[in-house]
Design a protein that fits this description.
The chain is α+β, with helices and mostly antiparallel strands and about 475 residues long. The protein has helices at about 1-25, 50, 60-70, 90-100, 110-115, 125-145, 145-160, 170-190, 195-210, 225-245, 255-260, 270-300, 305-320, 330-335, 335-350, 380-385, 420-440, and strands spanning about 55, 75-80, 80-85, 105, 170, 355-360, 360-365, 365-370, 375, 440-445, 450, 455-460, 465-470. The chain has 2 domains: about 25-110 and about 350-385, Uridine Diphospho-n-acetylenolpyruvylglucosamine Reductase, domain 2 (2-Layer Sandwich), CATH 3.30.43.20; about 120-350 and about 385-473, Cytochrome p450. It has 17 helices and 13 strands. Bound molecules: protoporphyrin IX containing FE.
Length: about 475
Amino acid sequence: MGDLVLALLSGVLLALILLLSNFVPARPKHSNNIPYGSMGYWPFLGETLSFLKPHQSNSIGSFLESHCSRYGKVFKSHLFGSPTIVSCDHEMNMFILQNEEKLFQCSYPKPIHGILGNLSLLVVVGDVHKKLRNVALSFTNTCKSKPEYLHDIEKLTVSCIQSWKNKNEVVFCDEAKKFTFNLMVKQILSMEPDDPLCSNILQDFQTFMKGLVSIPLYIPGTPYGRAVKARARICSTVRAIMRERGKGNVGLEKRDFLDVLLSNTSISSEGKVSIVLDLLLGGYETTSTLMSTTVYFLGQYSQHALDKLKSEHRVIRERKKGGETLDWEDYKQMQFTHYVINEALRCGNVVKFVHRKALKDVNFKGYHIPCGWRVLPVFSAVHLDPSLHEHASQFDPWRWAVEEPVKNVAPFGGGPRLCPGAELAKIETAFFLHHLVLSYRWIIKETDHPLAYPYVEFKKGLPIEIELQDLSS
Ligand code: HEM
C-alpha cells in the first residue's frame, strides 16, 4: 500500500514537474533556439491585448515585467496577428535596426497602412523609402541651417507663453500640441497660426491619432473609420494648396518646404502629399509629447533640476540684454537643458517600440528568429532596465553629466530609419523651456501621468497651475 501511495505521489510529482517545465523554463531558449514565450490563448490576437494594456510610460508595464522575468529579455509571443519575437535587449535591438533591408524590414500592421497611406515613410520599403527619406532629410537639414527657423520657434514660444498671462491654469498638452503644430505648418506650408485651416488640420490630425491605436474596423463612426476620413480631408487640403502653388501664380512662391517639394520632379504628386503628412504628423505629435513629459518630470520629481535649469537660462538671457533672439550659440550653451531633455526621452518613452519582420532565418546571441516572424525592438524596456541604468525609474538629469556618452538609449530608433527629426525636436523643446522657466512657476494640478497607449498620452492633458515670476527671483 505504502509503495502504491509512493508510486502515485511520484507520478503526480513527475506530471507536475513536466507541466511546470512547460511554463517556467529553466533556460532562456528552446532546443530549436526560438526564444521561450507564450503564444496566448486567443486566435489571431494572441497576447496583443495584454501587450497593449496602458501603463505609465516611465514603467515597462505588467506584460513586459512578467514576460521578461519568466522568459528573459528576448521572448516569443503572438502579437498583431503574427508570431513575434519581442526584444528588450539593447544589442539585439540595434542589430535589428542596423540590418534593415538585409535581415529585417520595417513592417507596420496592415490596418495602420489604411490610416497612414501606402506611401507613408513608415510603410514604404526599398528604393521608394530611400527616395522619400532623402526628401524628409532635406527638410530637417534645411530647417537646421535657416536662422529663420530658430526665430520662428522663439516667436511662437513667446506668443504661446504670453497668451497665458491672465490665466492661472493651462492644459499643457493642448498648448504644446498647438505650438509644435503651428511651427510645422509654418515651416512646411507657410501657414500662420491664425489661419482657420490650421486649426481644422490640427483637429483632423487628432482624430487621425486616435484611429492609429483603435480597433481597425472600417465602419463609419468608429475611431478607425473617423481616422481614415480625417486623413482623406487633410490630403485634399494639402492637394488644394499644392494645386494653387502649382499654378505658378505671382506671389504664391513662399520659399518654404512645399516650394522645394513642388520643384522635385522625381516624386509623384501623391508621394508629395504623403511626405507632407508624414512630416506634419512626425513633427508635431512626438515633439509635443516630449515637451509635456519634460514639464511633467520637472514639475513632479525634480525641484533641484528645475533650479539648475533656471540658472542656466538666466545666464543665457543676461547675455541678451538687448532682447536679441536665441541663436545656435545659445543652444550649444544649454548643457543642462540637454541633460534634462535626454532624461525625459529616456524616462518618458515617446516611442515605446517599432515594428519589423525577419526577411530570413536569423541567429543572434544564440536565439533563432524564423523568417517571416514579426520582430519588435522595445526601447522602453532598455531605457528602464535597472541592470543598465542605475535607479532606472528615477528622473535624474545628472546621469548625463559624464564624459562618455550614456549607452543603452535609443529614443529615436536607429539604422537607416533613424528619426530625421531628432535634433529639431530637441531644439524646439530647449527653446520652449528657456522661456517657460524664466517666465513661470508651475505645479502639476492633478495626478496625471504619461500613459503608454502605447503612444504617450496624459489622460487629463496635464493641467498645470502657473504663476508669473520675477526674473530676479
Ligand atoms: C521627441 C520627438 C521624436 C521622437 C521620439 C521620434 C521617434 C522616432 C522613431 C523611433 C522613429 C523610427 C521609426 C521606425 O524605425 O520604425 C522615427 C521616424 C521618423 N520620424 Fe521621428 N521622432 C521625433 C520627432 C520627429 C520630428 C520633429 C520629425 C519631423 C520633423 C520626425 C519625423 C520622422 C520621420 C519622417 C520618420 C520616418 C523615418 C524613416 O522611416 O526613414 N520625427 N521617429
